[in-house]
From TrEMBL:
Sequence ranges of Basic and acidic residues compositional bias: 241-250
Name this polypeptide is given: Serine/threonine-protein kinase
Keyword annotations from UniProtKB, A to Z: ATP-binding, Kinase, Nucleotide-binding, Transferase
Record region (Disordered): 233-262
Lineage: Bacteria, Pseudomonadati, Myxococcota, Myxococcia, Myxococcales
Keyword Ion transport: no
All residue ranges annotated as the Protein kinase domain in the record: 24-294
GO molecular function: kinase activity
UniProt source species: Stigmatella ashevillensis
Record's keyword annotation contains NAD: no
Superkingdom of this protein's organism: Bacteria
Length: 501
């Protein structure tokens, strides 16, 4: 009998706990983007010395990882996760590059604000840290090109900020990896001049927009505007009717204080400068100047600086926070802050100091892992009514500004961002390319299936995913598509209770 290769059963999208990638052992899955999957790992042989973040390429030989590593290695900032290691994980599907960075235990900026009621002074302090991260990036000859709330992590215990996810970044001398006119990024954060370039050079065969520090600063302004108003400014895409405010002689967006009177004048002034229609008016394209302005505003004695930004009540709408939600978060934040007061804030620096940067060039050979179990009842505990609903709003879309609550992990292009709190998570028993079973699973829905979102296959109901094989993540291959079994969500009984088992 032909011997089975256990590594064939391991899905690069969902590595099991305990598996080794280079010198690093997987502790858990944390998120997935369009280009990479993020894992929490520990250094083999130094167990207990701290956790680190391993970002593994989804596609073999992805050149973005080499460029991201080169950019990160040039940046020196306390607000950018440090690159500690890079290598290649060999898999039968190909060589998957990976990066290892310091671990940041935090929430995305928008999630942090949605669960709290900050003041203008707090927001200025957070924005100043992002500006300092951009200053270091630009000083290294780089641009981030995807500054947004999902790519900024806030540590609740001390409100320390990290700018993450340099997968879309670029630096002087780096090669162009795409043939598109505009670089990768999130459309809602693109500057007016980027869209103007697209309109002028739409049919040019070799033109590429050279993103600059002014683009990063504009994106910082969009992020700040969204942070204090719970709304995005008007879109900059020229074909949108409201985009006329971004013309060079246009008025710019509606001022934040007209939407939220609790925003301090100093904070509003800084945001409007970042959102200037003329690039040169954005702090002369200098992130250092923006950071200094924000830091000076933090020191202002103006009492409006300490007014809470959002109203408190039961309304679930922009610029409102619930009293119960604020109380729960205050309780959650109390313990970490007490740890900081007792000196726990030095643990991060000590952990990273034990792991200096290393640059392996030989491919790392992963240990073979035993064949994964094809299916278990665990799958059904991850299913809920959400599997059968329409696809959620894409992250950072103007219509879905509150779609991500809780701790977030940004990995690569977050168009396919998966928050850590999502119910759709990596199951460590996942395998590559699971064939559709001949018989239904216990508890799986049986025909008649709901025609709007279910498909009847082999005597049971299945939900098709918008992805192509290999499916992974406990999805099953069937005739060129990926399917998950449809399970009844728990609900109040309306008939025989036995039918709900």
């Amino acid at each position: 009998m032909r011997k089975k290769n256990p590594l064939l059963e391991v899905d690069p999208l969902c590595l099991p706990m305990g598996m080794r990638v280079g010198h690093w052992r997987i502790q858990g899955w944390r998120g997935r983007g369009a280009y990479g999957t993020l894992y929490r790992v520990e250094r083999e042989g130094r167990e207990g010395s701290g956790s680190f973040a391993l970002k593994l390429a989804i596609a073999p030989e992805d050149p973005r990882f080499e460029r991201e590593a080169l950019l990160l290695s040039r940046i020196q900032s306390p607000h950018v996760p440090r690159l500690l290691d890079q290598g290649v994980w060999e898999h039968p599907s190909g060589a998957h590059p990976y990066l290892v960075m310091e671990w940041v235990e935090g929430e995305s900026l928008y999630a942090w604000a949605a669960r709290r009621n900050p003041t203008s002074r707090q927001v200025l302090r957070l924005l100043a840290q992002v500006a300092r991260a951009l200053e270091a990036t630009h000083a290294a000859g780089g641009t981030h090109r995807d500054v947004k709330g999902d790519n900024v992590l806030v540590c609740p215990r001390d409100e320390r900020v990290f700018l993450t996810d340099f997968g879309a970044g670029h630096f002087r001398g780096a090669g162009t990896l795409t043939s598109k006119l505009l670089p990768p990024g999130t459309p809602a954060y693109r500057s007016p001049e980027a869209w103007a370039f697209l309109r002028v050079f739409r049919r040019h065969p070799t033109a590429h927009y050279p993103a600059s520090a002014c683009d990063d600063l504009f994106a910082l302004g969009v992020m700040a505007y969204r942070l204090v108003t719970d709304e995005y400014p008007p879109p900059t895409f020229p074909d949108e009717p409201s985009a006329k405010v971004w013309r060079e002689d246009g008025p710019g967006p509606q001022r934040p204080r007209s939407l939220n009177p609790n925003v301090s004048p100093a904070l509003e002034t800084a945001i409007m400068r970042l959102l200037s229609t003329a690039p040169v008016d954005r702090f002369n394209g200098m992130a250092r100047e923006a950071a200094e302005t924000l830091e000076q505003a933090v020191q202002s004695p103006d009492p409006e600086m300490d007014a809470l930004l959002f109203s408190v009540g039961q309304a679930h709408c922009p610029r409102w926070r619930t009293l119960e939600g604020l109380r729960l978060v205050a309780e959650q934040d109390a313990a970490p802050r007490e740890e900081v007061e007792n000196g726990g804030n030095d643990k991060r620096d000590r952990a990273v100091a034990k792991h200096p940067r290393v640059w392996p060039h030989a491919p790392a050979r992963a240990w073979a892992i035993g064949a994964a179990v094809v299916c278990t009842s665990v799958m059904f505990t991850l299913m809920s009514e959400s599997w059968r609903q329409a696809a959620p709003q894409l992250p950072d879309s103007p219509q879905g500004v509150s779609s991500r609550e809780g701790e977030s992990v940004a990995v690569g292009n977050s168009v396919m961002f998966v928050p850590h709190s999502s119910s759709v998570q990596c199951d460590p028993i996942s395998t590559l390319g699971l064939p559709l079973p001949e018989k239904p699973f216990p508890g799986q829905r049986k025909p008649p299936c709901e025609p709007r979102f279910e498909t009847a296959i082999r005597g049971s109901c299945w939900v098709e995913l918008k992805m192509a094989p290999p499916c992974g993540n406990n999805a099953f291959d069937w005739e060129g598509g990926c399917y998950i079994p449809s399970a009844n969500a728990p609900r109040k009984p309306t008939s025989n209770p036995q039918e709900r088992r």
